[in-house]
Amino acid sequence: MKRFVKRIMQRFGYDILHLPTDPSVRQQLDLLRKYNINLVFDIGANTGQYGQRLRKMGFDGQIVSFEPLPDAFLKLKSHADNDPAWSVVPIAIGNFIGESQLNVSQNSYSSSILDILPTHLESAPESKYLHKINVPVKTIDSLIDQYYNELSRLYIKIDTQGFEKQVFDGSLQSLHKISGFQLELSLLPLYEGETLMYEMIYLLREYGFKLMLVEGGHRNYETGELLQMEGIFYRG
């Protein structure tokens, strides 16, 4: 019956949407709509979890997912293959153009260009590194115009396991084209040389992006201590 009603409504130019009930997800969707976001760069896409989440939230704009890890990229591609508005690119994003070594973790999504620290391993033993691979690296500045046009309202999600500041640094020439960012923010160092939460918040504010929403993230389940959060920023 539900499908029948939906087909009838579509014939008259209407659609029935199932809006998210989780307050945090609903707030994210409200912000995407408020800022008319129609293009998302999903940097550090892993197997496509974020892109799938966007679609479930009701986002129907263009998604471009970047993932350098070969096994994760194949799974990502399988999720995007039947979605004409979802492109996938097998590269890492950073603050230089060239090649780098990526540390591959047991759980894949903790893989990083940076070395992992004991604090992370204590909270997630499955994040231990197994080996290294060479991956191509580009900057947002070097590739943005392949996807961006004058009608684009671009939002960039960065989940690069401690490498977030380097990705942001590679976008500085393009900030006028970017409406918002979503970043992993660490309260304690989890990767060697990473920039911590308070400095990242200050840095983005300095460039005109205000923290609009915070979402809980990785924690040490033995102690209960929160180690990372998701920060959502939009141009003020």
From TrEMBL:
Could you name the domain of life of the organism this protein comes from? Answer: Bacteria
Which species does this protein come from?
Dyadobacter helix
Using the record, list the residue span of the signal peptide; answer none if the entry has no such feature: none
All copies of domain Methyltransferase FkbM, residue ranges: 42-211
Q: Name one GO molecular function term.
A: O-methyltransferase activity
SUPFAM superfamilies, per this entry? S-adenosyl-L-methionine-dependent methyltransferases (SSF53335)
Give the matching Gene3D superfamilies.
Vaccinia Virus protein VP39
InterPro entries from the entry? FkbM_Methyltransferase (IPR053188), FkbM_mtfrase (IPR006342), SAM-dependent_MTases_sf (IPR029063)
Q: What is this protein called?
A: Methyltransferase FkbM domain-containing protein
